[in-house]
Specification:
It comes from Drosophila ananassae. The protein has 251 residues and is mostly beta strands. It has 3 helices and 14 strands. The strands form 2 sheets. Strands 9-10-11-14-13-12 form a 6-stranded antiparallel beta barrel. A 6-stranded antiparallel β-barrel has the order 3-4-5-8-7-6. Strand 3 (38-43) and strand 4 form a beta hairpin. The protein is globular and about 40 Å long.
Amino acid sequence: MFTLVLVLLSFAALLAATPGVQRIIGGQDTPIEKVPWQVSFLHDGKHHCGGSIYNEFLIITAAHCIEQHIGKNFTIRAGSSKWNRGGVLVQVAAFKFHEKYTASRLAEYDVAVMRLANPLPIRGNIQPIPLAEEDPAEGSPALSSGWGATYNDVWDMDQCKLSKPINLRGVNIRIENKRKCYLKASQLKQNICAGVIGQSICFADSGGPLVVDKKLVGITSVTNNGCCLSPGIYASVAKFHSWILNALKEV
């Protein structure tokens, strides 16, 4: 039996339970110049999730990054490879998550948008990313990035230990057959499966980008059976394309 695990878990919660947290599974330090659309989504000044720049005012992320923290102090940091310094820091003014999203049904409707209080300076290391209108083909090379845990010791695996994050990480992976993510029928059309054992996403990568050919194809959602043991599940940008565009107008 496989269990879906939210990739969220704020850094504050992780630090309370473990010596620290680090980043994406099986990846490497990645300069923001390579992924200038990536932002760190901060909750009370701590890295909480990732996000992607749509334009100077609007950010795309995952619903589960927001749903349980309504009314909290949210900011985003853009233009820096480090979540805790550099670049620009901007307050989140408003957000909207999919009306059908519920925490009890993981990997379903896990998409949200945010509007910033002030515009981002679109230049150099701060750039928007276009939205994919079609899902990528199985086998397509993709890039996933974030400041999530490098290893996961929840399952007491010697090779899976958490350590404190600083730098942005990225991992080059491929789009996999959706069956490899053990998705239920209701989840198959909404999601993309990417990565392999040892190369995937983990805690606090949530909301971040999955990119193919410099287009946003997926929003980091969940992983099944633990960070070290399975591919990652991403909300399909193509499947939610109309909802995202409408939400970006309304938020």
